[in-house]
Amino acid sequence: MSTTFSVSNEQEHVEGIAAAKAALAEKRCIVLPTDTVYGIGADAFSAQGVAMLLAAKGRNRTMPPPVLIAQSATMDGLARDIPDEARKLAEAFWPGGLTLILHAQPSLTWDLGETRGTVALRVPNDETALELLGQTGPLAVSSANRTGNAAALNIEQAQQQLGDSVDVYLDGGPRGEEGDDVLPSTIIDCTGQHLKVVRSGAISIEELRVVVPGILDLGQDAPETSA
Using CA of residue 122, residue 126, residue 128, residue 130, what is the dihedral sign? Predict the structure, then answer.
C-alpha cells in the first residue's frame, strides 16, 4: 500500500522526506517532483531497487535510468575522464534540465542495467528533490510513467500509471503552467570526441552553444577532418 505526502504542507513535508528515505533504504521505489516532470526513484546503489524501478515502468535492462545528484561536486565521484566542456555545461545549467552522459567510475558497486560503462547525471532544480538527494545520496530516477506513455506532470498521473509499485509519493503540485508543454531534460553524450545532443529538451541548442560552440545537435554528424 503506497502513501502520498503533500510536500507543500510543512508537517507532511517532514513526514514525506522521512518516509521516502525509509522506503529507499528498504530498496523500494518512490515518486518525487523534479523541475521537469515527476520521477520514479530508487537508491542508485541498490540493484534490487533499480530492478524494481525498471519493472514498475515496464522497462528492461537495456534502458538504464539516469542518476540524480545533489551537487555538481558529486560528479567526480561517479564519473571519470570528464571533458572540460562537460564541466562548463554543468556549471552553466546545473541545477536544471540538463543530463550529461559520462564514463562511469569503474570502481562503483552499482548495477543500473546495460550502461556500457557510462552514467547519465543531472542536478535537478527542485527544492524537494535536492533536499532528499542531500540526505540519501545519488538516486536512480526515471520519468514517473509506464514506458510508452506520457510522463507524469502531476502526482495523480503518476499514481494512475505506477500504483502500488511505488511505496511513497511526494506531491509537489503540477509541473509547469496549465496548457504549457513541459519539456524533459536535454541529454548530452559527453563520451565521444565531440559533445552531442542525444535528446532535445529543456535547454535549447542555442543556449548550449553559448557555452560550448562546437556541440553537435540531435542528428548532426561530426565535421570531417582533413588528413
Answer: positive
| Cell numbers at 85, concatenated | 566542456
**pLDDT tens-digit readout, 143-174:** 999 999 999 999 999 999 999 999 999 999 99
Q: Do 72 and 125 touch, CB atoms closer than 8 A?
A: no
Rounded to whole angstroms, the Cα distance separating 154 from 173 reads 6
Model confidence pTM above 0.85 = yes
Q: Indicate the pLDDT class of residue 111, thresholds 50, 70 and 90.
A: confident
- CA 112 vs. chain centroid, Å, equals 13
Beta-carbon contacts of 132 under 8 Å, excluding residues fewer than 6 positions away, are: 17, 20, 21, 32, 139, 170
Least Cα distance to 142 among 219, 215, 34, 224 occurs for: 34
Chain centre to alpha carbon of residue 185 = 8
